[in-house]
Amino acid sequence: MSLKGKVLFITGASRGIGLAIALRAAQDGANIAIAAKTVAEHEKLPGTIYSAAAEIEAAGGKALALKCDVRDEEQIKAAIHQTVEHFGGIDILVNNASAISLTGTLETEMKRYDLMNQVNSRGTFLCSKLAIPHLEKAANAHILNLSPPLNMSKRWFAPHVAYTMAKYGMSMCTLGMAAELKGKKIAVNSLWPETAIATAAIKNLLGGEKAMQCSRKPEIVADAAYWIFNQTSADCSGNFFIDVDVLKSAGEDDLDKYLVDPSAKSKLMRDFFLE
C-alpha cells in the first residue's frame, strides 16, 4: 500500500486528526493541500497551516498551505483551483473540518447553530461538490468524511440536537453520494473513532488534561484512513467505518500504542453516537 504521488485535499488539517492523516500520507511522499483558517497561533488551538506544512514536508511529503474557510464557496473554489494548478489534480478529499457545541436547544445561540451546520454538513457538501470534477479524473478516487454512523436513537439528539444534526448531515452526504457516485468509481465513506481522540476539542470542551489522558492519539484515525485510501474505490464505498474495526480487519493487533496514557486504558471515553 502506498500513497506516493497522490494528492490529498484535507480540510481542517492544521491540527488534530486532519494533520495526523496528512502526516501519515506524507510518509509515502504524498502531496497535501492544507485547507484551513488558522494562520496565527492561538492560545487554545495550537498549529497553523504553515506549521502543518512544515511538519508535512519534514515527514517526506509536499505541502500547500491554503488559508480558506469551508463556509465560503469562493474561497473553496480558489483553494481547489490552486491545488489542481500546483499538484496537477486531486485524488483524495478529506472532509475533516468540524465545529462543535454540546448545548441544548435553549442554550444554543443561532450563530453557533449556523456555524456548526455551515462548517459540518454544508462544508462537506460544498467541498465534495467542487472536488468531484477533479476526482473523476483520478485513478482511485476517495472522499472521506470524518463523521459518525447514522444512529436515530433519541439519546444522541436530546442533549445537543443542533450538533447531532450537523454531524449527521456529513454522514448523510456519505450515504447519498456513495450511491450517486458509484458509476464514477469515486468512493465515499465515513470514518469515526471508537473513543475520544486527544485533540483540542476534547481538551477544551470535555475535561481538559484529564479527558486527554482517557483518549487515544489521532494516529489511530490516521492509520485507519490510510487503509481506506488504499482500497479500490469501486469496491469500498458507502461504509461507516470505526477506526478500531478498520485496524483489526487490517491485521493490527497492537492498539495500546495509540493510548495517550497506558495506565488509563480501562477509563477510555467512548465517542458519541456509538452504542
Mean pLDDT: 96
| Major beta sheet, strand line-up | 3-2-1-4-5-6-7
Largest sheet: 7 strands, parallel
Percent of residues in helices comes to 40-55%
What features would you describe in this structure?
The protein is of the alpha/beta class and 275 residues long. The chain contains nine helices and seven strands, in the order βαβαβαβαβαβαααβα. The chain has helices spanning 16-26, 49-59, 73-87, 110-135, 161-180, 200-205, 208-213, 219-229, 243-249; strands at 7-11, 31-36, 62-67, 92-95, 141-145, 186-192, 240-242. It has a seven-stranded parallel β-sheet, with helices on both faces. The longest helix is centred in the middle third of the chain and has 26 residues, at 110-135. It is globular. The two termini are 32 Å apart. The model has no long low-confidence stretch (mean pLDDT 96).
Care to give the gist of this entry?
The chain is an alpha/beta fold. The chain is built from 9 helices and 7 strands.
Features:
single chain, 275 residues, alpha/beta, seven-stranded parallel sheet, 9 helices, globular
Q: Which helices and strands appear, and what pairs or packs with what?
A:
Blueprint: E1 7-11, H1 16-26, E2 31-36, H2 49-59, E3 62-67, H3 73-87, E4 92-95, H4 110-135, E5 141-145, H5 161-180, E6 186-192, H6 200-205, H7 208-213, H8 219-229, E7 240-242, H9 243-249
Parallel strand pairs: 1-2, 1-4, 2-3, 4-5, 5-6, 6-7
